[in-house]
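User: Structure please.
Assistant: Input sequence and predicted structure:
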Amino acid sequence: MILAFTGAGISQASDVPTFAEQPGIRDCLTRSYAIQHPAEYREVIAEMQAACDAAAPNDAHLALAEYDVPVITMNVDGLHQRARSRHILAIHGTLPDIVLYDDPAPLYEVAHNWVFQLREGDFFLIVGTSYYTNISVQLKREALRRGADVFEIDHDAEHLVRDFLQKADTPACTFEQFLARSPYV
């Protein structure tokens, strides 16, 4: 089984700017900023929406969908959905329903539950993640604890994801079978 965890780097080739390329944007993506500066906040969200609307899924998104890889994503750009991935956990929501930096993140628990299902022989594929948020570090650590092989792609995702998926040799397992595994193995 392969479980993917994606961050902003997967969407770079789709011309969606990463936060690292937009100094100060994280400061604008907090609930307190949205309340204190509503007009500026709406402008930031509108700019993000325009960039996401102009983007198309790149081959990394398409390959994950074609190989039916379940995806935990931190991205709010909707490109996994547009690539037609069937099993997506968007832990920070989507732009119309975004989880801001100081908001509770209820899907973090679900993400942990997905990673708890990993075991020896499985892969945890991390694509385009800077490890800025603690959830990134936690999920990687848990995948390693579970015995999964962790494979990281931090550049050239639009080429390397498909290459990895073509070469990965994992046992066949449906998403439903994956979720039904005992996390205590």
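The CA atoms of residues 34 and 41 lie 5 Å apart.
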